[in-house]
Write a structure and sequence with these properties.
Layout (H helix, E strand, L loop, with lengths): L5 H4 L2 H13 L2 H8 L3 H15 L4 E4 L2 E4 L1 H21 L11 E6 L2 H6 L1 H11 L3 E6 L5 H10 L4 E4 L8 E9 L1 E5 L12 H6 L2 E4 L6 H11 L6 E5 L5 H6 L4 E5 H11 L2 E3 L8 E8 L6 H14 L10
Length: about 325
């Protein structure tokens, strides 16, 4: 004989009704709690009696009283309802008391631009929260996998073609600028097109980001591929290399602003057109409603949505 499914044997609403009647010992009062009319309560109680093969409640001189079977049933039913209700209530995430490490995928641009602002905020508002950065995978499918498994909580930056299943939020739009050392012979008040073409260039070739591809395409389109003298795999190596040579680098504007502060490099608008790009935070659909992940994304959004460039090109 085929066994009936549990949903056909039990009605959760009926168990809720049983629990309420058991506690109130009054059909009218129980109906008021549940929002049911007297006829609806009587009909539901009849279904309960049929389901369990027991009267469950009988009217005595002192009012509605449970049967011995109902007394046995009351504890397990109350416990089961409590378990079910608990599944409907997501555990809150309290940043002030939480102890958790979030893994955030970013390049060294992110470490240079985001972390100096993010960490002081966390120290004040969420002292038990730790951040561990990791490299963004060059493979979109691998990034999607790491986000889906929770190995990475959030990815930040300019990422080419993230795979399906990834949610995103654009934080701000940035542009490329050129940086050179102070006193560079080809850069005076502006960087001329002839000077740009004569110069030797350093180009970022950083895995997991679209910057190298974008800059490379523009240089190639302007016949400057042979002028690329150096390709590096870390953005932060660019500043000391430019500061101690006549190389020209084309880098994201917010990163260039940090170079002017620490290395006194000069910023110039590129004499050829580079496309603007979006700096975005990425997360997996699986963690869209997870309270901790949601909180971290909200912090990032609050701090960096429409994030302004601090400096301007010369």
């Amino acid at each position: 004989m085929r066994k009936k499914s549990l949903s056909r044997q039990l009605d959760l609403n009926l168990l809720d009704l049983f629990d309420t009647v058991y506690r109130t010992r009054n059909l009218t009062a129980a109906g008021s709690v549940l929002g049911l009319s007297q006829p609806a309560m009587s009909h539901a109680l009849a279904r309960l009696r049929e389901m369990y093969g027991d009267p469950l409640f009988v009217r005595l001189a002192q009012g509605l009283q449970p049967t011995p079977f109902a007394d046995q049933l009351a504890g397990p039913v109350a416990a089961a309802l409590q378990i079910v209700r608990a599944t409907l209530d997501k555990a809150p995430f309290d940043p002030a008391t939480a102890q958790r490490t979030f893994r955030v995928a970013m390049t060294d641009i992110g470490e240079q631009v985001f972390l100096p602002l993010l960490l002081p905020h966390l120290e004040r508002k969420a002292p038990g929260i730790k951040i561990e950065t990791c490299a963004t995978s060059v493979n979109p499918a691998a990034l999607s996998h790491d986000l889906s498994t929770g190995d990475i909580d959030v990815a930040l930056g300019f990422i080419s073609n993230p795979a399906s299943g990834i949610r995103r939020q654009v934080l701000f739009r940035d542009r490329y600028v050129c940086v050179v050392r102070p006193g560079h012979p080809l850069a005076k008040k502006s960087l001329s097109l002839d000077g740009f073409r004569q110069a030797r260039h350093i180009m970022p070739n950083v895995a997991g980001t679209g910057h190298g591809e974008t800059v490379g395409k523009v240089l190639a389109a302007n016949g400057l591929s042979d002028q690329v003298a150096l390709r590096v795999t870390h953005f932060l190596s660019i500043a000391p290399l430019v500061a101690n040579s006549d190389l020209v680098a084309t880098v994201p504007g917010n990163l260039a602003d940090t170079f002017t502060a620490s290395w006194k490099l000069r910023l110039f608008e590129p004499p050829v057109a580079f496309p603007a790009f979006d700096v975005t935070q990425y997360w997996h659909e699986r963690y869209h409603e997870e309270p901790g992940n949601k909180w971290l994304r909200r912090v990032i959004e609050t701090m960096f949505l429409d994030f302004p460039r601090r400096g301007t090109a010369a």
